[in-house]
Design a protein that fits this description.
9 helices; single chain; elongated; about 75% helix; TMEM64; about 190 residues; mainly alpha; membrane
Length: about 190
């Protein structure tokens, strides 16, 4: 009987890859049990530290983005519902840049799949979408994983500075478009 327990303990000690694999897969499962991405990334910082937590979160979020790409392509009705939500939140004809999507992913209450739809609009090809998704997930994974590691050291002043910085980033990374009305463009002098 003791040999069986020794084997189990040896297997657990030798299987250091199970916790990271479970964490990466949890990123995919978490959307079905309504756990925010931010919370999972913070837990990654607590469990694995900044470097490995960021890497594991990036792997999980990239797999999640790839899965959502295929699901949204298979179910156009779901895609249309998210596009309607996008129109309600961001207005008619708003096309967000990859930088804006990256900043919006840092905001905890913005729907992750909604931002995936915005990214699919910007980059419809799978390769471009995955590359852009990786880049848009990088600040999210890094920021909240580091936040998870050092959460006890933050003061309210630092939190306010972080929020102000996010607002400035979102404003700076916007797509600058000038709208010219039809009549102004083809103005006929009288």
């Amino acid at each position: 009987m003791d040999d069986r327990y020794a084997f189990v303990f040896t297997f657990i000690e030798a299987s250091g890859w199970l916790a990271p694999l479970a964490f990466i897969l949890f990123h995919i499962v978490r959307q079905f049990i309504f756990i925010p991405v931010v919370l999972v990334c913070i837990v990654g910082g607590i469990l694995f530290g900044s470097v490995f937590g960021t890497l594991y979160s990036l792997a999980g979020l990239t797999l999640l983005s790839a899965g959502s790409y295929f699901i949204l392509k298979m179910f156009p009705g779901l895609n249309q519902k998210l596009l309607n939500l996008k129109q309600k939140w961001f207005g008619q004809g708003a096309v967000l840049t990859v930088g804006q999507i990256a900043v919006l992913r840092l905001v905890p209450f913005v729907h992750y799949q909604l931002l995936n739809v915005c990214l699919m609009e910007r980059r419809p090809a799978l390769g471009d979408y995955l590359k852009s998704s990786f880049l848009a997930n990088l600040p999210l994974a890094f920021f909240y994983t580091v936040f998870g590691e050092f959460i006890s050291d933050f003061t309210p002043g630092i939190i306010a500075m972080i929020l102000l910085g996010l607002c400035l980033l979102f404003y700076t990374l916007r797509e600058k478009v000038k709208v010219i009305k039809w009549r102004e463009f083809f103005h006929q002098p009288s």
